[in-house]
Amino acid sequence: MFLSIILACTGGSKMTPPQKNSIPKPPDVEQQEHIHTEHNIQRSDPYYWLREKTNPKVISYLEQENAYTDQVTKHLVEARTSIYDEMLARINENDISVPVEEDGFWYYRRTEEGKPYAISCRKTGSLDAKEEIILDQNELAKDTEYFSLGGFTTSHDHNLLAYATDTTGNEVYTLHIKNLQTGELLEDTIPDITGSITFSKDDQYLFYTTMDESLRPNKLHRHKIGTPASEDVLVYEEKDEKFRIYFWESRSEEFLLLYSASSLTTEYRYLQSDNPTGEFQVFTPRHEGHEYSVEHQGSRWLIVSNDSNDEQGEHDQRAQNFKLMSTSLDQTDISSWQEVIPHRTDVQLMGIDGFKNHFVIFEREGGLEYMRIVNEENNLDTRVPMPEPVFSVWGSSNPNYDSQKYRYGYTSLTAPTSYYEYEI
Questions:
Q1: How confident is the model at residue 3 (pLDDT cuts 50, 70, 90)?
Q2: How many angstroms separate the CA atoms of 232 and 189, rounded?
Q3: Region 79-84: what's the mean pLDDT?
Q4: Which of 368, 326, 323 is nearest to 345 (CA)?
């Protein structure tokens, strides 16, 4: 049985392993003394020097390792080619993503046969309109050995495209801005960012994050479009090494959200998106073990929290399955939060998506994650029925705050990945 599977995968290719006496000796690697000291414990790491990526000795050693690998696996070349060709034959290379509508523009990505990277496109007004290619990754990658696209976002007026590229594989990106009306690149180029980029509501500024030496996102910067990167402003620095920062704009486009997260503790800061040079405000201060997330919805904030917030102000009793709280837009401290959905011992609250007149909840019960639509104004509270007893469901791209449709993804052991729109 096992032999049959191998033959099926390789198309009957011959894979004669090298004789034992013909296998070359692997390259030797030099050891250099290096001692780590953490928590008053010393640990030897004689291979620490291999972290020096530009060291000629490191490069030479890697070249030797690659040559050794090629030698001992050369009998697999035909098999690898056969497997790759069979896999490629089963892939539809001419494919297209599900289009997403934003402000009258339909955005989508497509791939073409023989081209390894996606082409980002849009149509104006309807899907019957003429296609406009806004970014062809194949063109960007043609002169590089490696290419990856990071952040990708259009301005609110849809005239500018900001995107981030990585050509080294280090997940360290360079920011570019393209004028979608003329097709020209702006002179604004910012290296060494995380790939996360966000326009302010007036499209005059871009926010981006950078990393420390350990590639931990720890700084938020503000860039005024059309000015040198040297004039960019450091907006926030996360100095606690346990925390990483993330940044985005709310779906309503009314708030900029700065999120600091460690393994067990989170904290949010927020700012009106039409006041990009203002001061960020702490939503509620961090305390160890408190995990919360916020979502703007109408005239209030919705908060998913695991804090007990009891009358004595003690925080040792956690709502481990989380609960849903709310508060007004100008009263964000935990002392002002009101309960919307209490903590439940048999249902875990996974997250929410907020819209103008309703919100969508994802909750896990009995091992399955369900989707629930809630509109308190008309007493709508519906768990969306699923057609199979075992499935996976998740929120898809839903950029429009005023939308009365909710797009979600669905798959199961017997159903391929599909996308649906639920009519609220």
A1: very low
A2: 12
A3: 95
A4: 323
Rounded to whole angstroms, the Cα distance separating 171 from 360 reads 32
Rounded alpha-carbon distances, angstroms, from residue 163 to 52, 147, 150, 153, 171? 29, 13, 7, 6, 14
- For 90-97, the CB contacts below 8 A with 24+ separation are none
Strand 233-237: give its sheet, edge to edge. Answer: 197-199, 205-211, 217-224, 233-237
Average pLDDT score over the chain: 91
Query: 341: how many CB neighbours lie within 10 A of its CB?
Result: 20
What is 107-168 written as a DSSP string?
A: EEEEE-TT--S-EEEEEESSTTSPPEEEEEHHHHHTT-S--EEEEEEE-TTSSEEEEEEESS
222 is written with which tokens? 């503000």
- Torsion angles phi and psi, residue 80, rounded to 5: -60, -45
Q: Quick one: which of 252, 292, 290, 300 has its CA closest to 269?
A: 292
DSSP at 80: H
Distances (CA, A) of 94 to 83, 114, 129: 21, 9, 20
Strands 35-38 and 380-383 come out as unpaired
